[in-house]
Amino acid sequence: MEGLFIHSFLRSIGFSSIRRKTDLEKVLGTVMTTPGKQVYVQSPLDPTRQLCEKSMDFSENIGISVIGEYDSNNFFHVTHYFPYLRGNRITVRTDVAVNHRVDSDAYTGMCSDYRFGTSLIFYLQNSLDYLRNAEGGDHSTITGCPITLTALASSGKILLPIKKTPALLKIALAERSKYEILAKAAHIGSEDAITDLTMRELDTYAMINRRIKTEDVYSIVESTFIPYGSESDNYTILGTILDVQHKVNSITNEAVTELYITCNGLSLLICINDADLLGEARPGRRFKGNIWLQGYLDFEKIY
Q1: pLDDT, tens digit, 9 for 90 and up, residues 188-211
Q2: Distance between CA 89 and CA 67 in Å, rounded?
Q3: Looking at residue 209, what is its pLDDT?
Q4: In whole angstroms, how far apart are CA 145 and each of 142, 264, 278, 299?
Q5: Cβ-based neighbour number of residue 113 at 10 Å
Q6: How many other CB atoms are found less than 10 A from the CB of residue 4?
Q7: CA 299, CA 164: separation in Å to the nearest integer?
Q8: 3-state secondary structure 228-255
Q9: For helices 191-211 and 166-187, what crossing angle results, to 10°?
Q10: φ, ψ for residue 172 (rounded to 5)?
Q11: Angle CA(256)–CA(64)–CA(47) in degrees, nearest 5?
Q12: 255-263 vs 266-273, strand pairing mode
């Protein structure tokens, strides 16, 4: 296991005690010897390579995947690993471009969603399924693919919700619906929609500049999803909590919290170590934190 680093998001799933390579090798050894799931595939780029992914849950849908290949002597060589949170609800169905990462045998996916107005980049959880099902090897685009987005959080805090009357909620819902219609039209090239969206952005900017003088920014901005740091799949998220589940890592007994979040019209699961979460998570409150976005492509449901 030479060259493997201690993943910074291991603590998100309850492995904050891993600080040395020997600790990491012990956990990865457990995954490789008693995996809960194994996936095999011949590399489409090199048929002589037999790739294998070994996964093990340490709580429900939370675990570690180890990916490597077998040599001619049937010895398993680890190429990389990653902690994961598996989701069970499709987040979005759209076209996704899959690209091979430069630094490892891992893959990232990129999809555009009109609700965000920009592209989302995520770490691909089921890269071996992609190699088995998709043509094009290192780079390809999959049309109409169901994507389940999840995330691991390195830090986070709980914020109170913005108080809204039923009338304000109705207005906000109508504005969101109108924005999605305009964003969808702009996505396919409507100049009128692009102009309308630009004017709305200018109005929003003016409103924020006016209110920020007397109000806190989080009483104005209800949700956000923006890139964070140097990694393309890391984001800062601010969203409303829909559901909360408390779980425990079966090996370390560390407590983690699983949050079901809605943000800008999309919903996803987030897992965070309780030691890194400031505040009490409850439905209706908001979560703000730094996350590593992951995605699972459901090839069986493509039509």
Answers
A1: 777 877 788 778 778 777 877 787
A2: 25
A3: 79
A4: 6, 20, 36, 7
A5: 20
A6: 15
A7: 41
A8: CCCCCCEEEEEEEEEEEEEEECCCCCCE
A9: 140
A10: -65, -40
A11: 160
A12: antiparallel
Q: How much is the CA Rg of the chain, to the nearest whole Å?
A: 21
Percent of the residues in the chain that have a pLDDT greater than 90, as a whole number = 44
CA 303 – CA 285 distance, rounded (Å) = 37
Dmax of the chain from CA atoms? 69
pLDDT per residue as tens digits for the range 252-267: 999 999 999 998 888 9
pTM higher than 0.70, yes or no?
Answer: yes
**Beta-carbon contacts of residue 142 (< 8 Å; ≥ 6 apart):** 95, 96, 97, 98, 134, 297, 302
Structure tokens at 250: 């079966």
| pLDDT given for residue 293 in this prediction | 96
77 to each of 29, 53, 66, 101, 164, how far by Cα in Å?
A: 12, 11, 10, 19, 56
Decide if 33 contacts 109 (C-beta within 8 A): no
Read off φ and ψ for residue 82, nearest 5 degrees: -160, 145
Mean pLDDT of 139-157: 90
Q: Which is nearest to 52 in space by CA: 159, 115, 131, 122?
A: 131
Write down the residue that tokens 């290192």 correspond to. 138
Sign of CA dihedral 282, 231, 46, 297: positive
Q: What is the pLDDT of residues 167-187, one digit of tens each?
A: 766 776 777 677 667 677 776
CB atoms within 10 A of CB 222: 17
Using DSSP's 3-state secondary structure scheme, residue 193 falls into helix
User: Which amino acid, residue 105?
Assistant: D
